[in-house]
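@channel sequence for tomorrow's demo:
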Amino acid sequence: MTRSVLVLAHTGRPKTAEAVRTVALRLQDAGIRVRLLADEAAAIGVSGVDLYDEYDAAARGAELVLVLGGDGTILRAAEVARDCGVPLLGVNLGRVGFLAETEAADLDRTVEHVLARDWVVEERVTIDVTATLDGRLLGETWALNEASVEKGSRERMLEVVVEVDGRPLSRWGCDGVVAATPTGSTAYAFSAGGPIVWPAVEALLVVPISAHALFARPMVIATSSEVAMEVLPSGADALLSCDGRRTISLPHGARVEVRRGATPVPLARTPHPRTFTDTLVEKFELDVDGWRGRPES
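structure tokens (generated this afternoon):
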């Protein structure tokens, strides 16, 4: 059976286009069919590949989604991987790249792992999100990183009641509330003052943004729990944003319910010694050697 790999990329960077061409050629030389979205292939200038107009069709039947780009590109690819159940392997060609498995400098070695099918699949927790108003469905969506309820205007504060497992927890006057997964703990939730949670931990996070309340601390709750946020008429209208990609307008009285997602995102992990701790040290440029009194090399 012929092998095939879907390659998704951030086409706005010249170095990404060059990386896609290099990867495509190596995969083709090994007898692996390369799939690309038609618009990305045109922007990159790749030939001899299988072209697709739609994400779902492009991923269906592929053995892997190989992503070349930053976290935004990987979040876009996560939509494909989740719906089709195809593992996603990210190579960071962006700035931060917490979601990536490897860095640009390791591209050649990463391709070797792909050629050898040398990876294991790690399922990342997602969240399912439902927005309603007086029992009427406003929208349903999901997130790999986070769902945030934020005020719709700068002039007014958001007034929101937060519930956990059907019980009111607190009323916050705030700029917003973030409900995040462990994967998303290093993204928006971290910027809002939330804790970093190792991806293997079974947990969900609730992080208020600039809340005016005596009790307004980040919380870590069980994945079996359900979080609800209700937008009160005494404050601003709100907007629900999931992974910064899918949005729903929330009028006064709207209710957002967040629970563990029914479908995880499969991430491919290649054999290498870097742990999540190593990733934190690298991404946040922590001076580990300095703490230990070692001279800089």
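heads up for whoever presents: The mean pLDDT is 91.
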